[in-house]
Amino acid sequence: MRYKRIFGIVLDSVGTGAATDASKFDDEGSDTLGHVGQAYEGNLKIPNLQRLGISNLRNAEILGVPKVKEPLGYFGKMQEKSVGKDSMDGHWEMMGLPVMQELSFFPKGFPAKLLNKISDFSGRKIIGNRPESGTKIIDELGDRQLETGELIIYTSGDSVLQIAAHEDVIPVDELYRICEYTRTLVNGPEYTVGRVIARPFIGKKSGHFTRTSHRHDFSLKPTGKTDLDYLQGHVKTYGIGKINDIFSGQGLDEVFHNESNLDGMEHVDYVMNQDFTGFCFVNLVDFDALYGHRRNPIGFGKELMNFDKRLGVVLENMRYDDLLIITADHGNDPGFKGTDHTRENVPLLVYSPSMEDSKSLGSRQTFADFGATVADNFEVSGTGVGKSFLSELK
Fold it and tell me: Which positions bind Mn(2+) 2 (predicted)?
């Protein structure tokens, strides 16, 4: 069967256990879903994800979320082949463009000549310049930034350059201009950075600063065509949440910015009410930004349960010829050491009201199987990377 509409929802950072190459990233033992379940001591209630097989795809079920005898649809997990574990790597690979070239990382901070160019362009001095948790460095330097107007620049274990500023000191549009200029400095060949991220925040003093939804990712443009590019022009393509940023708008007909995961799900509801043939690609970032990096398993679990309730609405509103694919782009285990993403396998949950069977899709060897399946469904060539599982769906 071919489906008229496919909805792909990426639960940003909701990994399901250490990948086979986790040791290369010092991530052995990471397990986002497993550790969230443990933090809830068996009281994690995600009945819709449970019915779809969220525990069935694992060797050990999530505490409090038993495996079900007959899941609603198909279930499995996917391994990443990209060399990194950032959102850009994961999403590009899902759409048939694995990132196989090492990007630039800055474990000791950014070089002075790069920072000097940013400072000269912006007319502002720079503080920070080290790998750090965003909430921690903003709490530490936010008072100074309020007083001086300096730029807080920091990085992480991923290929990112993040610039934070108080919205009352540096208006969001000005911060975006600074980030747009910075993006031009790190497109290679000397420095090739995956994402430049604007991190506006508000609040009156240390301990009360909050990062706002005006975050914007200025991503490296895709280095080749993605499955989205092949789809565009043949079917309608929607991007919800970070999707537009991650793909620099390429391959997308209509996009929506999310204020929150809830806002993102309301955008999903809106698109579901449209009559179209095509693909809606969704990223829900709050799991990652608000709870994973902050190592908050209780908040992470609460967000999962909130999503699960909204997922119930999606399942009720699906049409007979709709297909839903739920996955993630990496892990960010809130019960693990550090504050960075974790190299994990990701869930693969696939459902349509038309399905007459339920079985495992196994362990897929690349995230690109997702995009290959979407391209196969709409009978477009795609990038040729990945193996479609469309024929396995009955």
Answer: 288, 293, 341
Give the range of the structural domain holding residue 261, as residue numbers without chain letter: 5-100+221-392
What confidence category does residue 158 fall into, taking pLDDT thresholds of 50, 70 and 90? confident
pLDDT at 157 exceeding the cut of 90: no
DSSP string covering 264-331: HHHHHHHHHTS---EEEEEEE-HIIIIIITTT-HHHHHHHHHHHHHHHHHHHHH--TTEEEEEE-SSB
* 231 and 215 inside one domain: no
Q: Which of 9-18, 151-160, 202-211 has the highest mean pLDDT?
A: 9-18
27 is in an annotated binding site: no
Which domain CATH number covers 327?
Answer: 3.40.720.10
329 is in an annotated binding site: yes
Pair of tokens at residue 101: 């070239």
Helix-strand-coil split of the chain, %, nearest 5: 30, 20, 45
Considering the domain boundaries, does residue 107 fall inside one? no
Question: Annotation-wise, does 341 bind a ligand?
Answer: yes
Q: Residue 85's pLDDT is what?
A: 95
Is 330 annotated as ligand-binding? Answer: yes
Other residues' Cβ atoms within 10 Å of the Cβ of residue 188: 12
Q: Which of 195, 219, 243 is the last residue of a domain?
A: 219
- Indicate if 284 and 298 belong to the same structural domain: yes
Could you report the per-residue pLDDT of 107-131, keeping only the tens digit for each? 999 999 999 999 999 999 999 999 9
Per the annotation, does 321 bind a ligand?
no
